[in-house]
C-alpha cells in the first residue's frame, strides 16, 4: 500500500538509499553488505568542491563477515564519496573494531559506545545499525532449519509475539498464549 498523497505541494530536497544484501560464503561464513547513497537535487558547495545535482554526497559501504552465531569475524568499510576530501575517508579503518561483537541483544548499545560522534562517521555508524538487522535476516534461513531451536524472531515484533495467533498457527511449539497446551514431557 503506498503512502497517501501529500496534502501540500512540495519539491525534492534530499534522497538517501540504503541497500543491504546477504551472502552465504563457500567457507561456511556469511557476508552482509550495506550500501548508503545520499544525493541532492541541487548543486552544493562542500569541502571537497562543487557537487552537482544528483552526484553522490555520500557513497559508503560496509561489509560484515559473520559466523552462524552472528559473531562478526571481519569488517571492512569504504567511503567513495563524502563532503570533506582527505578527512571523512580516514575513519573507515576504525570500523574494524566491530570484529568480535555479536549481533543480538545489546548490539546497538555496543556500536554506539565504540563510535560516539567524535570517533566515527555518522553515516557509517547508521549503516552498522541497519546491518544488524541484515545479519539476522541473512542468518534466519539457516537458523530456522533446526525445529528444536526457537526462531530468534519470536517476540521480536507484535506479529510474532509468542502469545499471538501467528505463532499459534506457524510455530505452535513456541506458542505461549492462555490457550496453549502444556509442553510435552
From TrEMBL:
Organism superkingdom: Bacteria
InterPro entries, A to Z: DUF2889 (IPR021312)
Q: What is this protein called?
A: DUF2889 domain-containing protein
Q: Which lineage ranks, top first, belong to the organism behind this chain?
A: Bacteria, Pseudomonadati, Pseudomonadota, Betaproteobacteria, Burkholderiales
Amino acid at each position: 500500500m503506498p503512502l497517501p498523497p501529500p496534502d501540500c505541494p512540495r519539491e525534492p530536497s534530499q534522497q538517501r538509499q540504503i541497500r543491504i544484501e546477504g551472502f552465504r560464503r563457500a567457507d561456511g561464513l556469511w557476508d552482509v553488505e550495506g550500501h548508503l547513497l545520499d544525493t541532492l537535487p541541487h548543486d552544493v558547495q562542500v569541502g571537497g568542491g562543487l557537487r552537482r545535482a544528483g552526484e553522490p554526497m555520500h557513497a559508503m559501504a560496509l561489509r560484515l563477515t559473520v559466523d552462524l552465531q552472528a559473531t562478526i569475524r571481519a569488517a571492512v568499510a569504504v567511503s567513495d564519496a563524502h563532503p570533506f576530501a582527505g578527512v571523512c575517508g580516514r575513519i573507515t579503518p576504525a570500523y574494524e573494531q566491530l570484529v568480535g561483537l555479536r549481533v543480538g541483544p545489546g548490539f546497538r548499545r555496543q556500536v554506539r559506545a565504540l563510535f560516539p560522534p567524535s570517533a566515527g562517521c555518522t553515516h557509517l555508524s547508521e549503516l552498522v545499525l541497519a546491518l544488524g538487522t541484515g545479519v539476522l535476516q541473512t542468518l534466519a534461513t539457516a537458523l530456522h532449519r533446526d525445529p528444536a531451536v526457537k526462531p530468534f524472531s519470536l517476540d521480536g515484533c507484535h506479529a510474532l509475539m509468542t502469545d499471538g495467533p501467528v505463532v499459534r498457527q506457524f510455530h505452535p511449539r513456541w506458542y505461549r498464549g492462555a490457550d496453549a497446551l502444556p509442553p510435552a514431557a
